[in-house]
Every structure is written in C-alpha cells, then in structure tokens.
Amino acid sequence: xxPSLGYGLIxxxxxxxxxxxxxxxxxxxxxxxxxxxxxxxxxxxxxxxxEISRRREHGLPVSLGHALSAWRANAGQIAAFGMILMLxxxxxxxxATLVFALLHQGVTPTWESFVRxxxxxxxxxxxxxxxxxxxxxxxxxxxxxSALAVPLLMDRPINALDAMRFSVQAVRRNVRPMLLW
Length: 181
Prior knowledge:
The protein is mostly helical. It has ten helices and no strands.
C-alpha cells in the first residue's frame, strides 16, 4: 500500500496548494470549478495507480518510482490524451466562470460569505443548476472518453484518439455497468 499512498499524497498536497492559491488570490468563485476540474484530469493522474495495479497483477516489484515513471509506457500518446483532458478542464473553467458571471446576483462572495452566497441564497438556484448540469455533461464525456483509454494507452502501442474511441464504444455497449462504475 505504501506506493499507492505515496502517489495519492502527491495529489492531496497539490490540492492543498491549489486551495492556498485560491485563498491567497481571493478567487473564491473558482473554488468549485477547480475542485471539480480535478476530476476531469484525474484519469491521466491515475497513470501511476494503473502501473501499480499492472505490476502487482504480473507479480513484479512495486515502488513509488515505478508509479511516477509509468507515463513512459506510451509517453507521447498519454501526454496527448492529457492535453485533451486539460483542454476540457480549461473549457470547464471558462464555462463555469461564464455561468457565474451571467447567473450570479450581486458582488463576488468573500471567503466568509462563500457558502451562504453560493449555496444558501434563493437566487443561487439557477447558478447551481446550470453549473451542475454543465459539469455533469462534461464529466460524462470525460468518463466515456477515459474509462478505458488510459489503461489501453499504457498496455498497448495505440494512439490517444483510437484509445478514446474504443473507450466510448465500450461505455456505449455497457451502459449499465459503466453507470454503476
């Protein structure tokens, strides 16, 4: 478990660093889009965990170093897939900012008023509904594109677009199990 815990700790620390930047910059309206955006790029971040699982399955030794260097299996295509997910993430941030600008009434909330203003005001319902709907559509697209893409990219010499296509096909053919997953 130590390599997995160490690998996960890296992302926990990255999350805390991101949170600190948001606090320092007083960009509280970006807190939820950035936190949820973490899930959009998560499939590429999980490359190390896939490598740990693969090595365990084959009875090979496992270390944090193996997890951190897992991207080398198909580096160019994993990076291309990561760039596609990063573009979706950037689109999500821009769209969430637009939704906030169009649907939020009043001044930008402070840290002290963030929860009250964004979640508890009656006029926040359209903002939350639009953000959750938009985020749900993007998350569904990313899930379909990535459910099998990263393991395929690590296991076979395949390009990112083909891996995404196979992933979408697998999700479409197995909707119920994939919804449960």
